[in-house]
Design goal:
With 367 residues, the protein is an alpha/beta fold. It folds into 2 domains: 1-46 and 337-367, Urease, subunit C, domain 1; 48-334, Metal-dependent hydrolases (TIM Barrel). It has helices spanning 69-78, 92-103, 138-148, 164-174, 187-196, 217-224, 241-251, 302-311, 316-330; strands at residues 2-4, 7-9, 15-17, 20-23, 26-28, 36-38, 43-46, 48-53, 55-56, 59-60, 80-87, 113-116, 152-157, 177-180, 198-201, 229-233, 256-259, 271-274, 280-284, 287-290, 295-298, 347-350, 356-361, 364-365. The strands form 5 sheets. The chain has an 8-stranded parallel sheet. Helix 7 (241-251) links the parallel strand 16 and strand 17 (256-259). The longest helix is centred in the C-terminal third of the chain and has 15 residues, at 316-330. The protein is globular, with a radius of gyration of 20 Å. The two termini are 15 Å apart.
Length: 367
């Protein structure tokens, strides 16, 4: 297969006018195949990778049972070719069941698992169910990892909670990345967390102590400490466009990971839905709210976030770094996120408005 006449994201993280070749699901230097896709006037990027996503197309990733394929297929058509299913804060038995369900899918579009909680601060619970928040537990962390068969790659936790030290040691043991989220940490508490092993900030701005000029808090630490990579929801509801600009200006694209934080209602019509824990959820204008007005996730894919960033003036190569390269690193996924020989041929073609026109998953065209 050859994609011709497009601007291709290169190994130097710049756009180049060149052919992109792939065979047998892998990117190659050349291709003898007759199949050609003319990408004239378009951008050619790696497939988007979403490392913070709770579901889509009517499927909740952390539910107790069912096939995840309808969600994965919808996301693939959107241009999101790899995901790290994210679990919401839950009781221990629910978390273990969710891990077992995800692992049992045996779908190579799943590149890891993100546990968003359950060790979070009730003060910054956001859309999480308060009664399901758990105290930090090394034993539960170990149990989830064992059940994940190595797929548990990322854990969101509040670094200021008592008992985090033991969880940190388990995460270091297994190579699980730690992200500060749903946290009321002060600047000093956040810095101590980073010194101990935290390297990320979960959905920056959301569900964390805000920045104040006399109390910079975790947000001040995340934006100024080069050891921290910031997640960023780009649906323009969770974070305003100027605030998105601030994150990228402070961190640079190399330290920002774009995410969707969407859930089962992404891809479904607007309206009222019931959550797995019995709460009412209201979806309108691309995001979801609870009855009390709390934002509870996005209803649009990472591809929409990328289009928003493009419309705000970010370059295609910057978006590719934030939505492809960095998420692959977050998942320790060495065969995705770049368009270089030997990599899996997850490729998307976007027009001059950054709308997805074609999607290749493992070399097979699906859109």
């Amino acid at each position: 297969m050859k994609i011709i006449n497009g601007l291709v994201f290169g190994a130097d993280h710049k756009m180049h006018e060149k052919e992109l070749c792939f065979e047998n699901g892998v990117i190659t230097e050349v291709s003898a195949a007759d199949d050609v896709y003319d990408a004239a006037g378009c951008y050619v990027l790696p497939g988007f990778i979403d490392t913070h996503i709770h579901g889509a197309n009517g499927v909740e990733f952390y539910g107790a049972e069912g096939d995840l394929k309808p969600a994965l297929d919808w996301l693939t058509l959107e241009g999101v070719t790899s995901v790290m299913p994210s679990m919401a804060t839950d009781y221990p038995e629910g978390l273990v069941r969710a891990v077992d369900r995800i692992v049992g899918q045996h779908d190579d579009r799943i590149i890891g698992i993100h546990a968003e909680g359950p060790f979070i601060n009730v003060i910054r619970k956001g859309g999480m169910a308060e009664e399901r928040i758990q105290a930090p537990s090394a034993a539960l962390t170990e149990e989830m990892y064992v059940h994940s068969k190595g797929l548990l790659k990322l854990m969101t936790m509040a670094p200021e909670l008592p008992g985090t030290e033991e969880v940190i040691e388990v995460c270091k043991k297994y190579g699980i990345k730690l992200s500060m989220g749903h946290t009321n940490a002060t600047y000093e508490e956040a810095k101590a967390g980073v010194d101990a092993g935290f390297s990320r900030a979960t959905h920056t701005y959301n569900a964390m102590r805000p920045l104040n000029h006399r109390d910079p808090g975790i947000l001040g630490l995340a934006l100024t400490d080069d050891r921290v990579t910031c997640e960023l929801i780009c649906d323009e509801h969770h974070v305003s466009p100027p605030a998105m600009q601030i994150v990228v200006r402070c961190k640079g694209p190399e330290k920002v990971t774009m995410i969707s934080d969407n859930s089962f209602y992404a891809g479904l019509p607007e309206g009222e839905y019931g959550s797995e824990d019995g709460r009412k959820m209201f979806v309108k204008d691309g995001f979801c709210k609870l009855e009390n007005g709390t934002i509870c996730g996005s209803a649009v894919s990472l591809a929409v976030g990328a289009k928003n960033m493009f419309a705000r003036g970010f370059k295609p190569e910057e978006i590719a770094v934030m939505a492809c390269v960095n998420p692959a690193k977050a998942a320790d996924c060495a065969d995705r996120g770049e368009l270089i020989p030997g990599m899996r041929a997850d490729v998307i073609v976007l027009d001059k408005t950054f709308t997805v026109q074609a999607v290749f998953s493992a070399g097979k065209r699906v859109r």
